[in-house]
């Protein structure tokens, strides 16, 4: 069996090499590649993806996994080898269930749909994309049918990004969260708006980068195993456990955008940099789900980076970096500014408190679409109705309504949004547990020290990579299931104090 296990590792390491090489191409395309390189790059990426796909669906790999399965089941279920074989088997089974012919049709339609959306959105022309979206919905349902035996049609789609989470479970968690959030958002947005004019002054790009770089390094992002560049949309990418890169986008008249993007992406990257080195090249060597990944970016961005304690330490330093902009602004004003809450139409501009309402609207609507409870033609009105009831605002046009996110126009319908809010919920669960285990953490943050928190996250989350599912990680790290209470307590505590709510 050891020989077969070695062969499996060698085969998967080769696939990982091809995928990581493709990731380098993608990183370059989004950072430094000249525009003229686009056509060749698209072709090169597609070629590598095809080779990877062929190797991943090789029947010899399937045979190897079948041979190793009884061995994996004979091992301690928590051992690395058992988990490695089972996760590889799960990935293999998923890939081979989807016919290449379907993938071809899907990619062709996605390119067509994305193009139509890019043209129709500025013109606010939902009619031009309605047919495309109907076809995407068909394809999304067909995709689910390759995984018969599901409890809800959304489950196979959710599995793509948040493996093991079920539609029913997420619906239940989201319904509870919504019940708490809607009145809290209402109470906060009935108060006068926070003044964030100090964040909208001119901030020199070099100075923004220098400050962001300093903070990222201090919270635990390893620059010797990564780097920070600029791109139109911030992202994190990895080429190995020891090369995990982040990007940000600089806006000269917005302090928030770049700074919190850097902290957010550093959170994603610290997770990837912290995976157990012995997992390199295996299917365990990455974050376990979209939700757990987002819990790490949001923990550093919001629970740490937008806390009063964090700015108690960093505000005087920020004032030194930006004396003209912040020299005469009090810490209190600045803290309120970086935590400004407002009713808004656009998800990507939303604040910490209202963000989840945007996400839950999308999740509920996409599940209604999949389940046939909502027709695509009725989507624009259903969207407006939910925005009115949940956020108290609604867009007259569809450009800033159901056409604002690229997700449904360049990917399947279902499974792409829930991770954002699951991540927020888990961020508070993990942070709470870390503080329970190490009560000195809040005082350390006020002193600009993050080693204890980083160490706890590395021990309980980072190092495991994909060894455990999201629910297993939560259970092992906190001793209980995924619950919303710590997250609600965090929001109530923070915004209750900021807005002097009863
Ligand atoms: Zn993220």
Radius of gyration: 23 Å
Largest sheet strand order: 1-3-2
Count of separate structural domains? 2
> What small molecules does the structure contain?
zinc ion
Distance between the termini: 64 Å
Label this structure with key terms:
single chain, 502 residues, mainly alpha, Neurolysin, domain 3, 22 helices, 3 strands, binds zinc ion
Description:
This protein is mainly alpha-helical and 502 residues long. The protein folds into two domains: 2-120; 167-498, Neurolysin, domain 3 (Orthogonal Bundle). It is built from 22 helices and three strands. A three-stranded mixed sheet has the order 1-3-2, with helices on both faces. The chain is globular, with a radius of gyration of 23 Å. Residues 264, 268, 294, 297 line the site of zinc ion.
Brief rundown of the structure:
The chain has 502 residues and is mainly alpha-helical.
Secondary-structure map with pairings?
Blueprint: H1 2-31, H2 38-56, H3 59-74, H4 80-97, H5 100-120, H6 126-145, H7 155-161, H8 167-189, H9 205-219, E1 228-230, E2 236-240, E3 243-248, H10 255-273, H11 290-304, H12 308-321, H13 323-326, H14 331-338, H15 355-370, H16 379-391, H17 407-410, H18 418-437, H19 441-446, H20 451-460, H21 470-478, H22 485-498
Helix pairs in contact: 1-2, 1-3, 3-4, 5-6, 8-15, 8-22, 9-10, 10-11, 11-18, 15-16, 15-18, 18-22
């Amino acid at each position: 069996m050891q020989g077969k296990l070695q062969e499996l590792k060698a085969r998967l390491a080769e696939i990982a090499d091809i995928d990581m090489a493709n990731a380098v191409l993608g990183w370059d395309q989004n950072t430094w590649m000249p525009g003229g390189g686009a056509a060749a790059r698209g072709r090169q990426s597609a070629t590598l993806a095809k080779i990877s796909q062929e190797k991943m669906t090789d029947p010899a790999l399937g045979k190897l996994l079948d041979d190793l399965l009884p061995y994996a089941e004979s091992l301690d279920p928590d051992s690395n080898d058992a988990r490695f074989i089972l996760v590889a088997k799960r990935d293999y089974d998923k890939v081979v269930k989807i016919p290449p012919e379907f993938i071809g049709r899907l990619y062709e339609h996605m390119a067509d749909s994305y193009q139509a959306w890019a043209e129709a959105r500025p013109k606010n022309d939902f009619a031009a994309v309605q047919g495309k979206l109907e076809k995407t919905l068909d394809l999304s349902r067909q995709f689910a049918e390759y995984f018969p035996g599901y409890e809800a049609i959304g489950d196979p789609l959710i599995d793509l990004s948040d493996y093991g989470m079920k539609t029913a479970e997420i619906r239940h968690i989201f319904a509870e969260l919504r019940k708490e959030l809607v009145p809290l958002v209402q109470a906060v947005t009935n108060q006068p708006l926070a003044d964030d004019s100090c964040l909208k002054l001119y901030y020199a790009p070099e100075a923004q980068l220098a400050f962001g770089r300093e903070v990222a390094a201090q919270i635990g992002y390893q620059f010797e195993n990564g780097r920070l560049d600029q791109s139109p949309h911030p992202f994190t990418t990895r080429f190995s456990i020891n090369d995990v890169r982040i990007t940000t986008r600089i806006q000269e008249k917005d302090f928030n955008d770049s700074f919190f993007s850097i902290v957010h992406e550093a959170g994603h990257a610290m997770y990837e940099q912290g995976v157990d080195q012995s997992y390199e090249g295996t299917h365990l060597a990455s974050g376990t789900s979209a939700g757990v990944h987002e819990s790490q970016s949001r923990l550093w961005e919001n629970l740490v980076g937008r806390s009063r304690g964090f700015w108690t330490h960093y505000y005087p330093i920020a004032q030194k970096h930006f004396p003209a902009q912040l020299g005469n602004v009090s810490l209190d004003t600045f803290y309120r500014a970086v935590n400004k809450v407002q009713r808004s139409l656009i998800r990507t501009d939303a604040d910490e408190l209202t963000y989840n309402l945007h996400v839950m609207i999308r999740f509920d609507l996409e599940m209604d679409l999949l389940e046939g409870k909502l027709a695509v033609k009725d989507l624009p009105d259903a969207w407006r109705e939910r925005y009115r009831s949940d956020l108290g605002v609604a867009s007259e046009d569809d450009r800033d309504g159901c056409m604002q996110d690229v997700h449904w126009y360049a990917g399947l319908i279902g499974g792409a949004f829930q991770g954002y809010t699951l991540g927020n919920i888990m961020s508070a669960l993990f942070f709470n547990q870390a503080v329970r285990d190490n009560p000195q953490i809040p005082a350390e943050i006020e002193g600009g020290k993050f080693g204890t928190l980083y160490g706890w996250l590395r021990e309980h989350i980072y190092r495991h990579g994909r060894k455990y599912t999201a629910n297993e990680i939560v259970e092992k790290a906190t001793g209980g299931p995924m619950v919303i209470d710590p997250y609600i307590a965090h929001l109530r505590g923070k915004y209750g104090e900021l807005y002097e709510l009863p």
